[in-house]
Amino acid sequence: MTLAARALDFGFRGHLVGSVAELDLPAGEIVCLLGPNGSGKTTLMRTLLGLVSPLAGEVTLEGRSLAAWPARERAARLAYVPQAAQSYFDFSVLEMVQMGRTAHRGVFGTPGERDRAVAMASLERLRISGLAERPIHRVSGGECQLALIARALATEAGHLVMDEPTANLDFGNQALILDEVARLKAAGTAVLFSTHHPDHALRIADRVVMLRGGRVLAAGHAADTINSENLSALYGRPIDVAELVSPDGTRRRTCVAREVPPMH
What we know:
- It contains ten helices and twelve strands.
- By secondary structure, it is α/β, with parallel strands linked by helices.
- 38% of the residues are buried.
């Protein structure tokens, strides 16, 4: 099962945000979108989900045009984690996570025992089951982000699209989410996520796509594509990629922005 785009122009009526010649997201693979603010990552993701119509080209799911899929069937196969936003509705955290089950029961269906069980299991995986009955607008930004991820997990979709899933999270919870995404891959789920942390891509991504100004600056295997030359061009400042050795002997690569001398 593959989500794919070909010759894709994305944006809004009268405003081209960017173009991608080719993008594939097959089962059991993690792809990371890297790029500075305003590079088009969110608009591209929303186009791949069918929330924004392509300006040109096509998005396909399982070889079939995404536009041809009934909304409910599409929602059961594609899950979305948006950037956390303030909620003004008095839903509990559990009720919001159960909304991830809507594609399985219909918009007007009442959540059943399985829906509740799947939702609670998703909360437990992210260690926030203790928040289940708390109103969503009374949790922290980081807790809300975890709840949005739990909602996506509750869909049991084969493709998961995550827009900066570690935003607003502390260091420990960032590691928790990265570990969970790695486990999803092992279970056959396809994951596309964006981040402002190239280290996260080095840790879990199979491939990366670097976007700058809506265009693909570089794309390929994470280990090969995340290098000093590409990162420096992507972010417009010198960035080094260094190797660290942990006390247990594990070798890892990390990205460090080089200090730029002050202008006189």
